[in-house]
Specification:
Layout: E1 3-10, H1 16-26, E2 30-34, H2 36-40, H3 42-51, E3 57-61, H4 63-71, E4 79-84, H5 87-95, E5 102-107, E6 115-118, E7 121-123, H6 125-136, E8 140-143, E9 152-153, H7 155-158
Parallel strand pairs: 1-4, 1-5, 2-3, 2-4, 5-8
Antiparallel strand pairs: 6-7, 8-9
Helix pairs in contact: 5-6
Amino acid sequence: MQEIVNIRIDERLIHGQVAAFWTNTLKATRIMVIDDSASRDDVQKMALKMACPAGVKLSILSIEKAVENLQANKYDGDRIFVVLKGPETCTKMWDLGWRFEEVNVGNMSSGLGTKQVKRSVNVNDEDVANFKKLNALGVRFTAQMVPNEDKIDFMPLISK
């Protein structure tokens, strides 16, 4: 049986924090990057492969393919650390029928129309709508930059 050990929103996908701290702490055997554009971009795939820790399997998949593989229990025996860029991906996965209980919000950079809700976490109106939709369906969102930091409820941060 495959086990999802964490689902993390991190716009940077695989980088030092994910590769070093999260993967080791979670004892993940596979990092699953779920992102439509990354799954089609050979340069980005190469960079992600280089950033992936030695001995950890890596899947870089489109949203549709990821849901298909997860529902088919394709990663039997793996401890899977799911990484995606934003809440829109979570919503698309949910709409395709994949269910999950908790998502860790790690890093979302600032941009046009965003507001900072926590250090390294910026949201726009569409992000807030996606978070609220999934939260209403029972998904819990937590904010935790690194594993040794306390996990806090993310939803009150976006309600300010």
